[in-house]
Amino acid sequence: MSTLNVKIFVAGLGKRNSDTIVACKEAFSANVDSNAYQIEIVDIFKKTSLTESKKILATPTIICENAFGEKRIIGELKDPEKAKQAIEFLTADLLNQEKDGKNKRASKTK
Amino acid sequence: MAKTKGLQKLNETVQEEFLDKVPTGISGFEEISYGGLPKGRSTLISGSSGSGKTIFACQFLAEGIRQFNEPGVFVTFEENVPDLRKNVESFGWNIRSYEKKKMWRFVDAAVPIGTNTQLVGEFDLDALIVRIGAMLDEIGAKRIVLDSIGSLFHHFHDPATIRRELYKILSFLKNRNIVIIITSERLEEYGLVSRFGVEEYITDNVVILRNVLEDEKRRRTIEILKYRGSIHSRGEQSFVITRPNGVVIIPLTRLEMTQRSSFDRTGTGNEMMDKICGGGFLKGSIVLVSGATGTGKTLMVTEFVKGGFETEEKTLFLAYEESREQLIRNAKGWGVDFVKMEKAGKLQIEAIYPETASLEEHLLNIQRLIDEFHPTRLVLDSLSAIERGSSKKNFREFLITVTSTLKKKEITGLLTSTSTTIVGGTSVTDSHISTITDAIILLRYAEVFGNIHRVITVLKMRGSVHAKEIYEFSIGSTGMKISDTVFRRMSGILGGMPIPANGDRTHEEAKAV
């Protein structure tokens, strides 16, 4: 099972940004198996070239990617309910695709 | 800290008093903007879709590189980068080579919101600022384009946030003291300045590009609506988009009447005609020859060319009615060898169908030909052909621009116009042009007891005496033969209602008048 790479792009580590980071982390740990993902915090002021190559426009932006694709959300995550919905949007398709892919591979080996 | 702030403030006031303008390199824009666009200020280019905003913006950067060695950054919110590179290739802007030379950078800011991206809460565009800043630093950019900011409003749904963020981006850019162009879409040609109603308030200057349908023809215009701290031309100016020149503005309202008037004469190519005109046409004057079809306009023109050749003058012949071959054959019939003149480099015939291009394109073509060939005489045959495919206003602008170009370069111009009625009458063209031209020659048919005669008269000639009488002329194998006796058999020819005159009595009357 390939890991979900989660990158949280923030502009500096001010209070509002750390709120979003905390909300995101909590939502992930509550909803996704802890082996299935890893979270990286990216400060756009420090990692300019990554910001450029990922074509980040707005902050905060959360990118969630694995071998099957990429999903993004833009904006602050304030309350836990919103964060949960956001995490569902970020992970649902990617995890499902992975399951599908596994089944396909499984059927091929048969 | 306080010291730097004070210094900054001082800088700002200095900037306001003396606008530091940078030439854009877009042909004609410096004329209408009195020098270009200011450093450290933002200019909104607003226009409907297809009005040429992106081309204008690209050209601003490309000419900055080509003419002034100024690097530029292009921030694209809509079109993707490979498409942009490809679309402007036909204008001769090789963006890839500019990029290699570190003169051009793209910032791909296409708004990603779609099925894989969701907007969930408040945000800012700091990441974009960081990216723009990095590119500006990398190449030391002096110019920047944001094209087009409309899609930010479109995708982010929150105008207040976008407005705040744009303001932030603009103040960031202004602090760098570079020239900023922002494009934005508008929905109607004559309506709100910008689609979202805020773009014009966050920018210092506003330029509007239009692409108006006028009498089934598209006409492009540019208007500087607002230019803080600077004078500028008011109203719409025509422009064209050509390949490979891109946007070329034809600054009509700033044509200056600085040409000096000459009292030197230049031959008409016909001895009798010279006499009637008091010694030939005045050098650098604009002469209109008006007559019905078949009265001998093309012949007069041919003789004018011949006259130029004899005095070693160069003539540019713009033919909008007949083909080259027809013209050469006709001239040969009157004993004038156009081919020989062309070979000698004294004549250039340009036969063009008027319908193949817009008036602005014709105009640019004429100006290009003049710049390349350096004629001292120009023939335009005929104005009526050009007028057929244009609106009244457009045609008048065309005329003014042509005539002022001729005057500036002191080229003697012979323009023909075909009158709509066979006998008498004036054409619509005449009324447009009569105030612009220096001399008017009328060629008319006169019916005398069942026979058609041709007559000629000089209606007006600025700055010169000329014969006021009507002369009869015939057309033969040696050209135009003007009789040296005054035509007195009829009166009322010019009005189109000729009545037979009774010899001497009319003579007396004519003298009395």
Task: Describe the model.
The complex is a heterodimer of chains A (110) and B (513). Chain A is an alpha+beta fold and 110 residues long. Chain A has three helices and four strands. Chain A has helices at 15-31, 48-53, 80-109; strands spanning 4-10, 37-43, 61-66, 69-74. A four-stranded mixed beta sheet of chain A has the order 2-1-3-4, with helices on one face. In chain A, helix 1 links the parallel strand 1 and strand 2 (37-43). The longest helix of chain A is centred in the last third of the chain and has 30 residues, at 80-109. The two termini of chain A are 20 Å apart. The mean pLDDT of chain A is 84. Chain B is of the alpha/beta class. In chain B, the strands form five sheets. A nine-stranded mixed beta sheet of chain B has the order 5-4-7-8-3-9-10-11-12, with helices on both faces. The N and C termini of chain B lie far apart (89 Å). Mean pLDDT of chain B is 84; it is low at 10-16 and 504-513.
Strand-helix topology:
The complex is a heterodimer of chains A (110) and B (513).
Chain A: E1 4-10, H1 15-31, E2 37-43, H2 48-53, E3 61-66, E4 69-74, H3 80-109
Parallel strand pairs in A: 1-2
Antiparallel strand pairs in A: 1-3, 3-4
Helix pairs in contact in A: 1-3
Chain B: H1 2-17, E1 21-22, H2 29-33, E2 37-38, E3 42-47, H3 53-68, E4 72-76, H4 81-87, H5 95-100, E5 104-108, E6 117-119, H6 126-139, E7 143-147, H7 150-156, H8 159-175, E8 179-185, H9 199-202, E9 205-214, E10 217-227, E11 237-242, E12 246-250, E13 265-266, H10 271-276, E14 281-282, E15 286-291, H11 297-310, E16 315-319, H12 324-333, H13 338-343, E17 347-351, H14 359-373, E18 377-381, H15 383-388, H16 392-408, E19 412-418, H17 428-433, E20 439-448, E21 451-461, E22 471-476, E23 479-486, E24 490-491, E25 499-500, H18 503-512
Parallel strand pairs in B: 3-8, 3-9, 4-5, 4-7, 7-8, 15-19, 15-20, 16-17, 16-18, 18-19
Antiparallel strand pairs in B: 1-2, 9-10, 10-11, 11-12, 13-14, 20-21, 21-22, 22-23, 24-25
